[in-house]
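Lab meeting prep.
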Amino acid sequence: MKSEHWGSYTIKPRMRLISDNDFAGDPDGLIQLAHHLLSPSVDLRGVISSHLRAGDSWNIFDNSVEAGVDAIKDLLERMPRQRNIDIYQGSTGPLVDRKTPHDTDAARFIVNEAMNSKSDLPLFITCGGSLTAIASAWLLEPRIAEKVTVVWIGGPEHDGDALPPPGAPQYEYNLHEDLIAAQVVFSDSNLNLWQIPRNVYRQFNVGRAELFIRMGMAGTLGDYLYELLAAVPVATEKLGFAFGETYILGDSALVTLTALHSTFEADPSSSMYRLAPKPGIDDHGQYFHADGVPMRIYEQLDARTTLEDLYAKLVIHEALR
């Protein structure tokens, strides 16, 4: 565990966290990881590198899981005060059916942390890509459902909440990385799930001018993170795509719903959700009515508090180097 002294104020961990993301893909995952690493209320127990979908435009690697590990290590080299973090490799591909887990180091780590930890702190697992590792962990040991809260960015819009964005593909991006794992988590498991669907994570739409000033000029770590983001429009514009003036930092919502809980009656109190039974997910990536265990469906996120917290922590990190 760690604590952080900001002036006369000491912040200690309030939760354990496992961060699971496709770190070789969109660099917003590395922004999220850096932010969690800079957040003293979080005891980051380990980081899981998960796979990118075969055929995905982000996936230019022979092994996207190993590429994600390299990206994590590159980030940690720039964060010496937070460098001592265990990294676990997830599955290199999606589940083949709803009964067979991928018995990986990542899945076993989740089971061990959930079932064998002596800590009284609650355990959150944040998933910014596929649900492969957590679905596999539950298939290996269903009792973890009593021990964890899963926060997932993914899934299409729910009926009545919003329409899909113009030109949206059939499958929402993170759902498409492992549809079967999502079916396990939604339809089969009793895991406690907080979902951030596509229409909600797109609320983290940030101006590139803001990112340049507030992130890119916030010291060496901020400059590094900004350049990761800046490389994306450069690459797409070479392909004839006009990127525009904004970037969606969707994975930052994982920080909003964990590190930034309120002081009293601890909860992500400035973000709005509703409780509903888990729906099923069909083979076309759409929901259907089912009476699953209750889940949180987030409808609005406090992006401003999250971004200002990130910018401030980048300045503090630079001052304490």
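Slide two material, second protein:
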Amino acid sequence: MNAPVIERARPGDIGEIEELLRGSGLPIEGASAHLEHFFVARVGGSLAGVVGLEQYGEEGLLRSLAVREPHRSKGIGKNLYLRLVDEARSLGIRRLILLTTTAEAYFAARGFRKTGRHTITGALQQSAEFKGACPESALCMELVL
């Protein structure tokens, strides 16, 4: 297998990104508006994974971490996640927030802890994910950087 290449998403990637997100049961709302802080993993030139960041001042929303089935459990998700954390730090983000219905253990293993949605204030509350793209039942988690 070719080694995965992690790079910034390009505008021409949005169709493939949305297809991967839909196939992974993740929302696509708001993704195209924040594409400048999305990263993709390519294996042999094909899109294998994606992760996105939305910046709201010193807070960031980690969203859309997905890896295609044949490429899972090979470190691609971890590499995408680490690239996103580097990006967040470079932007001056001090707290990463995420909503999840399926990946609590994955993110807990990376230092995220549960927090109530009521702790999220300001502009981040206006993100598509907090305004309904993610269900109310989604767990809110945070990581202080």
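Talking points for slide two:
The chain has a mean pLDDT of 93.
The radius of gyration is 14 Å.
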